[in-house]
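Provenance and format

Records in this collection were gathered into a single text stream. Each protein contributes a sequence line and a token line. The two records reproduced below are adjacent in the stream.
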Amino acid sequence: MESLIAIAALAVIGYMIGSVKVIPQGEEGVVQRLGRYQRSLKPGLNFVIPLLDLVFYLDTREQILDIKPQTVTTKDNVTFDVDAVLFWKILDAEKACYAIDDVEEGLKNLVLTTLRSEIGKMELKQTFSSRDEINRALLKQLDQATESWGVKVIRVEVQEIKLSDELRRKLEAEQIAASEKRAKISQAEGVVDSIKLISQALQEQGNTKQVLKYLLAQEYVKSNVELSKSENSKIIFLDPKSLDEAVTNLIGIQELEDQGGGTGNREV
């Protein structure tokens, strides 16, 4: 009799222990009774029916999903590798347990599909300057698609765009050519502005002849200095008398035009 009482007492104690479930903070439990969803268990002390209730534990903290590099193709048919990182968390334990078989695998495939779709709408150069736009588009579409899974996508970021060595060299060459082009345009604009300023200054000065002689002499000296820097250069010295005559002729033409007020042909 005592043995039976002891066995019964142990059974009761075991039943009571088995009915107690302590859920840690940051997790939730899903109770399945006889194959059907019964309820969700919140963090803290909970009671279930042993042998009838089966408990699944889910982590409800924010989690990180690292997407390995995948091959994508842009609108202009350029192929490269890109990877991303996804931050997400479970909001509804019941949906996360029953709406999809594997949440992480589903998120991974959804990110890859959406990423290929968004980059496929852009040209290569846009992908470098539009990362924020890509991230926002990914976040919007993923958040909408995962709502039925009881999952919240907090943020998604494209980490690195990996180009082939050949493509990288090509882009660098294009950037160098574009920089040189901008430099030449800027230099040409500077020359034009200088000519305008000199022309305006000459019109305002009364000693036009002396100013022109100074500017030509300055360019003459500068040209000789530049030529002297090269061993293969041939230095040609201009006769100062000829330089003075050239300035005199230039001034004479200008004075005749100012006196005549026209643009007809003249012989000097």
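Adjacent record:
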Amino acid sequence: MTGDAVPALNGGTHINLTVRDLERSTEWYCRALGFTVVRDARPVESGFHFRTLLHSRALTSIVLGQADEPSTEPFDEHRVGLHHLAFHVPERETLLEWVAHLDRTGTPHGGVQELFLEAGYGVWLRDPDNIWLELYWLNADYFMRRMREHHRAKRAARASS
């Protein structure tokens, strides 16, 4: 690694979410998003019961944790912390498949929407604790163009100094 280079990342693989009702949230993530329970754990003195859910078609997992004394307040993206959680889909058309699936499972959603700044398209929904979720297709051309512009600007700044 040289200069300002950053070590590689290879995508996100899991997130831990605190939920009010572990059974209700487990059922929702399995039904609505296709996750499967692969592990239950109650680490000594953690104050939590954790359940690991794995998605059957991606190397992605969600660990749901219910505190022994959970808060009764629903999630609010206006508080400091998580704003929303997003899952990428391989093709824009896959969003239509998700809409059909969510409709079949009775899961409310906002339909396919164009994302701001040419970023792509997404489907927005909320889990039982009001956590905002997004299924999205990334407009890779837009982001690659932005990265090229960024690198050209850095090279030009170095050349002029």
